[in-house]
Write a structure and sequence with these properties.
The chain has 288 residues and is of the alpha+beta class. 34% of the residues lie in helices and 23% in strands. It is built from nine helices and nine strands. The strands form two sheets. It has a seven-stranded antiparallel β-sheet with strand order 2-3-4-8-7-6-5, with helices on both faces. A two-stranded antiparallel ribbon has the order 1-9. The chain is globular, with a radius of gyration of 29 Å.
Amino acid sequence: MKLNPGSWFSKNAADARAQNAGKKQSARPRPGVGGTELPAIRDDEDLIDTGSGDSGAKKKQQLGGEHAPSAATHSSIEGKAHIINKGALEQAAMAGPGSLDPATLGAPAAPDARRWLAKRGVELMLPEGWRYLGQQRDGRSVAFHSSGTSDGHCVEVSFFSLRADVPLDKIAHSYTADDLDELIQLGRLSSSSSLKVGEVEGLLLVGYGPDSKDALDRLVIEKGADATNEALFLATDGTGLRSMSWRGAVKRGDENQLVIISFTSPVEGFPDARAAYDAVLAKTKVTQ
């Protein structure tokens, strides 16, 4: 027998609606003991403080009833942290594209991001207008993007738990001088340097790649287009995104943690963002 999925779905949907209607009817207030009517739910008990007076009329007006305000009417809670305005505030926090001007640095717009960072002793400063992408890596990091598109720039702050018996000074500087020299010779790193961010000493690693369009043109002339493309492919792990990262070690309670602040940009766009990345590290505070 051939089944008609559309008929089956329509029948079940109709049955579900009928059951829901029966439940709503049975949930209405009924007379109590001795025939006394139970008190009904008041019109103004909808999490909106309507005050005294004609609550039904006020509720109609607040919920867009008989005389709903026009789209141009200014709301008294516009831009304020009120539960009714939560969606609008979240949309504002996701606005983009973001600036690359180091002079526009400020705290992330999204309250959830600021809370996540504050709990971990980080005061992050970002260029204006960057989008909050939410928590990443099963809650171990938060990420921000300049535009949300493939040609944009990204900043991510990550925390990783480590064994208590690993000395803090060995965590951030796990690369030896020989390791770093080898990575530079292999074309995986452009440079490395010690850098203190806030109260924490750490190591800055800059991925291999050209630092300007002219440098990219010279690289193509020196190595040839194929060799340059291969070198950049290997240096970016095939992603086409050049990276820069800072890593330091902190102690939170009884736990040692590795904190990494990473920056990624398309190879061609990295030089445009480098000044903003340096400013982020200079203004960001990481506490022990």
